[in-house]
Structures are given as structure tokens and as C-alpha cells.
Amino acid sequence: xxxxxxxYLHAQSDAWMQASASMKAEGRAMLTAVIExxxxxxxxxxxxxxxxxxxxxxxxxxxxxxADGPEFEFPELLMAAIxxxxxxxxxxxxxxxxGILRRVVQRLRxxxxxxxxxxxxxxxxxxxxxATCQFLQRHRLPAIASxxxxxxxxxxxxxxxxxxxxxxxGAGSENVTRLTVDQFQASVLSTVQATVxxxxxxxxxxxxxxxxxxxxxxxxxxxxxxxxxxSFSVAAIGRGEHLAPLLLPVCEQxxxxxxxxxxxxxxxxxxxxxxxxxxxxxxxxFRICQAINLRQGYLGVDFVIDExxxxxxxxxxxxxxxxxxxxxxxxxxxxxxxxxxxxxLQIDQIERLSFRSGQHTFAVTPSAE
Length: 369
What we know:
Helices cover 30% and strands 24% of the residues. It is an alpha+beta fold.
């Protein structure tokens, strides 16, 4: 079986050059984990799409060189590099931001490549965090309330409470900011301007807005209440039509707030957590898979639990739904009794994944450049 792996930062030259060290570290961790899972499998031949700037070591795989070019041309540059080659499976690891994940998956499928990913409809839904929140609420799932910045008064928060600002189509922890309501009202314009200075002109501040100055902010940002508590995630792998997805264990995320900016440092697979809460997180993940009709690919669901409340089970909130491979994969594989990459690519038909007991801590460490 011929498998093509595509991690966007490693494959697109401009994205690689502009990415932060932490984003590169997360991309490299995911890509390396899948390569290592497939290396040495006698029935699998692995090729990785890469730009020259990423300097990918081809010792464990073949390398498909992608020509340099602007980001909007990437899907066509990718197809040109593939040429007449045919892969049995293609795994795309790409951010949802600016529709990148959807455009790449759509172009590959149009080119008759078997892309292991959720449906385009599901990718589009999960790309838009506002739409995702509304979708989850319609399905009576406990999503953190999210509104456009100009409608933050709908949240009904008091001045001393805190809010989180993030991109509607963001990926990872970058461009996520925490403020009090007072700070939001007084300075959100300058704060958001500073965090999005590198965004393209079409994402600039809407000068036609009639709102007060602090509400004249980019239209692709949202605001939500800050929920204090422990952060967790659960992943799922699609198994095919009419088959229940494979659920992976709970992972606690190491989310660090420094000067009210968010940073993701890794996590712990199978952390200490009450069994009823573990079951609740996995049940919610299964319900989300059912709601979006997950049949193939990887889905990562992020949660926040306020364990300080008298009844933590009543204070479990869904923070995000990610329709692609997440960094926690690098931790999961260390405890997995089965080959996760083979299950993800549907090379093996596995009805239930096995994991060794105990915990595994994994870190995401930016390399020096």
C-alpha cells in the first residue's frame, strides 16, 4: 500500500517560513509520529510531501518535493508534484485556518486520491467555531457559548469576569487571548490588531462598522467566557460506513496562560480523573461523531472541566472540535497496543483499540533555529 503523508507546514514553503517555532514543533511531532508508526511495515510504502525549506530527512520515507509558490497555489502545486502517481491513502495534517484543510482535501479528492479525512461538510463545520458552537447546542451538547466580538454583550458577563478571544477559523493555541470584560471593552482593538498584524488585507478591520472603537475588530474573531478548570481532549478514528468510530483514551492538555496569552505544551494520556468523568467525555465525543457522521479520518474534541464546582459532571464544556490529526496522537501511540496509523488509514480493521495501563506524558518542544 502506497501512503502519502502531507503536513502542511512541511509541504508549503511560505507557511514553513512564517510559522512560529511552536507550530513547527507540533507539526513535526505529528508527522514524525505517523512516519514512525508506518516505518518497517512490510505492506506499506511511505512518501512525505515536503518543501525544500523544511529540510525533511528522508531516511525513513520517500520525499515528494513540492515546488515553492504562494499559499493560494498550493493545491495545484501539490497535484503537479503528484502527477500521474497514485496513492492508496493520503493523510492530510493541515490547519483549518483560511480554509486550508478543506481546500487541500477537496483538491486531492477531485484528483481521485483516497484522502483519509472527515467529509468536506464536517471539515467546513468544524472550521467555523461559531457554526460549531451553534451545531453542538442544537444537538444539546454542552459547548462553551461563543459570539462574534461585536455581540459580546449577549454573554451577560460582569466587568470582573474574563473572556477569551480567538479566531473563528483558528487552529492551535496561537492568537488566543484572555482579558477581563473591562480590558476587552477598553483595549480589545489594539490587542487584536497586535495579534493579527500579519493577516491578509481581507481580514482587516471593517472600517464601515458603526460600532464604538473597541468593537471595530476583525470579523473572523469570536469571544467566549473564560472557563477556569482542567483541559482535556478525546480523539476518535473513523472506521467506515455504518461502523462506530474508535475512541481513544482521555488526554489531559497542558495549557499554559502567560501574560494572558495561551500556550500548549503537550499533555498526559490517561491522567488521574474520576471514572464517571472519563465516561462522560468519551460519550460526548461519540455523540459528536454521530452528529457529524464521522466515517473516516481523525477527530479531536477539546473539553474544559470545572472540578472546583460541587458537581463537576454538570460543568463539562466542549471547547473545540478539530477535524484532523492532533498533537495528542504523539502521546497516544506510546501507550497503544495497536498500530494507530494502520487503524487511522483503515489498513487494518480494528473493532476496539487496546492501550496499556498507566500514564504517558508528552511534551511539545520548539527546536532551536
